Amino acid sequence: MSDPTRSIGPDRLAELVAGRRVAVLTGAGLSTDSGIPDYRGPGSPPRTPMTYQQFVADPVFRQRYWARNHVGWRRMDGSRPNAGHRALARLERLGVVTGLITQNVDLLHTKAGHRRVIDLHGTYARVRCLACESLISRMTLAQRLEAANPGFAEAATTDGLEVAPDADAVITETDTFRMVDCARCGGMLKPDIVYFGENVPADRVAAAFDIVDRADALLVAGSSLTVMSGLRFVRHAAKTARPIVIVNRGPTRGDDYATLKLDIGCSPALTELADRLDPTQCEAGVPAAR
Questions:
Q1: For the whole model, what pTM was predicted?
Q2: Is 121 annotated as catalytic?
């Protein structure tokens, strides 16, 4: 039988967070309300994430990826923060959230106004040369790809276009797509995103651990914690006896470490939490958490 303290709900969530400095770890489930699908949430279709080895070793695979990304990346670029992102940004302004680590590459926390964000897996908005390490914006690459593939994106776009969590569109006709190489050295270009099979840069991991160490509690929102890049922060918080709250639809690999697990949507849970801890909301008649 499960621990009854894990199903008490928002009252218990507010009690655990109130008066504590909170580190936050977010995953794809937080961004679904912004129209960005996740990999493993309830009802999500089966997806096979791309690996680093596939990208660098197989030119056909790489061609298909860039064709799909060329069509889909603007959809992610145009996405906007949802109520969950805005609630976390409000909690940061209130001094409750002291740092945020995200496994997402969509930049929605930054768009929501967060000041201290670790983009653990990078972002869709930059491209790196694997040879000379130079960085360019995704918009700059888009302009080069448009010149090399005039009309390709327009021909592939339909009203029912599906965009996957890593910003590539689900299209099948990619054989005619022309890739481009680094304008500086001719090297292979890759999104500045950590793929499966790659390691998160050590300095980024250290900065994320620092956020957890400086906090009194860890809040996980919208992550199944399937991959170790996120789960390690939960395990670290557990070893240091910090309370751990997980808000996620469906089970996670971190449930056994959780002080409280809420199997509900991130947007309503985080919005209610921010309302309870915001003094201006208390003055307006929302009950205080303490």
A1: 0.88
A2: yes
**Cβ–Cβ under 8 Å, residues 82 and 31:** yes
Which class for 246: exposed (0-12), middle (13-18), buried (19 or more C-beta within 10 A)?
buried
CB 100 within 8 A of CB 182: no
For the chain, the structural domain boundaries read 1-36+81-121+200-290, 45-78+123-193
Tokens of residue 64, six digits: 């298909």
The answer to whether 1-36+81-121+200-290 and 45-78+123-193 have equal CATH topology is: no
Q: Alpha-carbon distance 105 to 80, whole Å?
A: 13
Q: Does domain 45-78+123-193 bear CATH number 3.80.10?
A: no
Residue 246 makes CB contacts below 8 A (sequence gap 6+) with 220, 225, 234, 252, 254, 255, 258, 260, 261, 262
CA count, 13 A, side-chain hemisphere, 4: 0
Q: Across the 290 residues of the chain, what is the mean pLDDT of every consecutive 10-residue run?
A: 50 93 97 82 58 94 92 90 98 97 96 97 96 98 97 72 62 89 98 93 98 98 95 98 97 97 96 91 44
Q: Quick one: which of 78, 84, 83, 80 has its CA closest to 108?
A: 80
According to DSSP, the β-strands at 22-26 and 189-193 are unpaired
The CATH H-level superfamily of 1-36+81-121+200-290 is TPP-binding domain (3.40.50.1220)
From the list 109, 114, 121, 236, the catalytic residue is 121
- Amino acid at the residue 185: C
